[in-house]
Amino acid sequence: MALLPPIVSAFNTDRSSLTDCLNEANVPILISSSVGWSQAIQPFNLRFTPVPNVVVTPRNIHDVQSAVKCASQAKVKVSVKGGGHSYGAYGLAGVMIIDMVGFQDVTLDSTTQIARVGAGMRLGNMASKLFGLGGRALPHGTCPSVGVGGHATLGGFGIDSRMWGLLVDTVVKLDVVLADGTATTVSATSHPDLFWALRGAGPGFAVVTAFYFQTLPAPAVNINWMYTYNFTSAATAAAACQFATGWAQQHAPKELGFGIILAPGGVFAIQGVYYGPKATYQSIIAPLLEKMKGLHKGKSSASTVQQLGWIDSLTALAGAPLDTPPQGDNSHNTFYVKSLDTRESAPISLQALTSLFTYLFNTTPPSGSQWFINSYLYGGSGSKITSFPPSTDPASTSSYAGRDSGYVWQLYGYTGDTQPPFDAAIIGFVKGMVEALGAEVAGLPAYAAYVDTALAKEEAQVRYWGARVPRLKAIKAAVDPWAVLFNPQGF
Ligand SMILES: Cc1cc2nc3c(=O)[nH]c(=O)nc-3n(C[C@H](O)[C@H](O)[C@H](O)COP(=O)(O)OP(=O)(O)OC[C@H]3O[C@@H](n4cnc5c(N)ncnc54)[C@H](O)[C@@H]3O)c2cc1C
């Protein structure tokens, strides 16, 4: 990729020149005295209190171009805010923020079934709109207020992803503004290096203004299922965990989304969705339930098995309505997370699981805090995540790194009322979970969408993108030589 020419010959480092430039270009902005400022700079994770100088609220691509050029001239770092759900508040990390809230269009090409989705969309609103456009759907996470901007550039795992792939795998094209202010379209044939980088390591490579996704027909029949057990011994909980995760990896068809959820008090749930008839689901899951019942001393679990339509299935997974106000969404938490991406070929051993459950049973978490762990199957038989790219054509690969995942674990500690203040001891408690798993998980990859703010940048890059790091660095140097676009753990 050729180096881009400089867009200015002299840099002006005076920050007031930034707002002057934005005003001159007639770009809508918020500054600290503006009505709506505190809401505009509030991230989902209230552990962070970002302090940008200015928030730009572009109405169109032209405004984005002007804003990026002004920031480049003023030599300030730019971050893009989608839904504001980065675990590290990275959408609000720059001196100038480009808030994509004005980009809410969703249209569908009825011939190709490719949807063009504005980069300010939240997942719940996107799902509702797509379903309204002839029953179309995409794979993505369950939280309706997560933004498509950070989700479709870093991964985008949903319970349906073993069947359909990650959200990033459905991207066929992107409309972007480059760091020099140029607006362009990126695809396998136009800026292929950037297309590769934007699908897995995207934040910091360009400002995405719209995504083009290959949609799928929403399944008519969805079986949302969950079985909750209570274990009182670490050894039994570990045996259940090893059996359930191993069973799913071996026997779950790609239509069976599968995860485990662990919570205080010995709570051990297995949960997912089967995309197909209930009778088929019941025959698939029966051997697992039989074994789990045995481990649970013959006691039945609390169970929910519901046959639902697509939108009702997504709503039940979310535990909340899908529609989210694009501005002023008030869902928050105050938390720290670590993630572990285990190899399909190397499941966590019984010994390590026993050590984890011993820690969970015997360690008192910091006063007033809460925790949970979830682990979702990415691999297993026929998984579209691990069999991507669908062809050997190099243009179809992406920078998303977890193609040999077994399970992705998320270890999560938060304040009991979800509000600040955050006790830093929660970070130590969460790290203790990983330490309890021991040497066999040390150095495992992590999932870039589950930002681990405790990792130094270099370590984070290796954990998130592994062997792809040198190519990502080279692409960044080519498309953004002055590092105008900012992602704290990115390039
Ligand atoms: C409650 C909750 C549930 C979640 N559930 C899941 C899940 O089920 N599956 C899963 O895979 N992940 C899940 N995540 C993680 C989620 O995918 C990431 O946090 C994601 O990055 C959030 O995107 P955002 O746009 O809301 O966040 P933001 O903070 O706005 O953005 C995140 C990053 O993306 C960049 N970015 C945003 N928009 C653009 C754009 N238009 N152009 C360029 N860069 C952009 C930002 O600069 C920032 O670096 C969840 C997160 C939360 C908080």
What fraction of residues sit in β-strands?
A: 15-25%
Task: Provide mean pLDDT, rounded.
Answer: 95
Which overall shape is indicated by the principal axes computed on the Cα atoms? globular
Tally of separate helices: 14
Rg, rounded, reads 22 Å
| Structural class by secondary-structure content | alpha+beta
Number of strands: 18
| Separation, N- and C-terminal Cα atoms | 16 Å
Adjacency order of strands in the biggest sheet: 15-12-14-13-17-18-16
Bound ligands: flavin-adenine dinucleotide
Q: Summarize the amount of helix as a percent range.
A: 25-40%
Low-confidence stretches: 1-13
Main sheet: strands, sense, barrel: 7 strands, antiparallel
Features:
disordered N terminus; seven-stranded antiparallel beta sheet; 491 residues; 22% strand; 18 strands; 30% helix; binds flavin-adenine dinucleotide; alpha+beta; five-stranded antiparallel beta sheet; 14 helices
Quick recap:
Its cofactor is FAD. Helices cover 30% and strands 22% of the residues.
